Amino acid sequence: MRNALVDFARVAAPLQARLQTALEGTKRTKHVAARVAIDFTADERNSFGQVKQILAKSATLVTPDDSDELILMTDASDAGWSIIVTAVEDWDPATSITEQQHQLVHCVSGTFKGAAQHWSVSKKEAFPIIKAATDLDYLLIRSKGFRLYSDHRNLIFIFAPGDEIKKHVRGKLQRWSLKLNELRYTIEHISGEENVWADMASRWACIELPRETTTVKRW
């Protein structure tokens, strides 16, 4: 169910943390959890209310057709990341990405933990792209490929499709770039203002950037 709930990880984080604390030293089963008495704090009550709201607004997921345009939108904030995959049945090249008729295929979000909390902005922005390439390969490996949108301009060049290794890219980003090159895709820059779905899921606010798009195609 959580794959149909945009921003579930961030919204439910206070409740998840409280449950983990309450179950410490016990058998972590639903039966045991149901008997744990919990007195919610104000933040936890607010979190519970938000979870109910996103449940009420949960989207119906679709299975994309081979002829659909498959869209991958990702974003990251300092604390979290998000992945949203949509399908567009009747793609209009003359229409902006925000005006296309999207159908939700998959969405997931999470928070950065441990050493990942101290990653650079580029690594944090790149992480959900590579996570999608790894975890959602059953969706993304297709003859028609997919369209990738990111509001982090540097990633457009780091992850530009092609077999050559970018000489200025080192370490983790280089390894991630090679992983992404196993897939067929185009990558486009989208302003934070237009990347509204993914941005809300990772930050719950829009970044106001110029409305510019750069496209790099893979043949």
Automatic annotation (TrEMBL):
GO molecular function: aspartic-type endopeptidase activity; endonuclease activity; RNA-directed DNA polymerase activity
A Pfam family annotated for this UniProt entry: RT_RNaseH
Gene Ontology biological process terms from the UniProt entry: proteolysis
Domain (Reverse transcriptase RNase H-like) ranges: 65-182
Record bears the keyword Ion transport: no
Chloroplast keyword on record: no
Database matches in InterPro entries: DNA/RNA_pol_sf (IPR043502), RT_RNaseH (IPR041373), Viral_Replic_Matur_Polypro (IPR051320)
Keywords associated with the record: Aspartyl protease, Endonuclease, Hydrolase, Nuclease, Nucleotidyltransferase, Protease, RNA-directed DNA polymerase, Transferase
Name of this chain's protein: Reverse transcriptase RNase H-like domain-containing protein
Organism of origin: Phytophthora fragariae
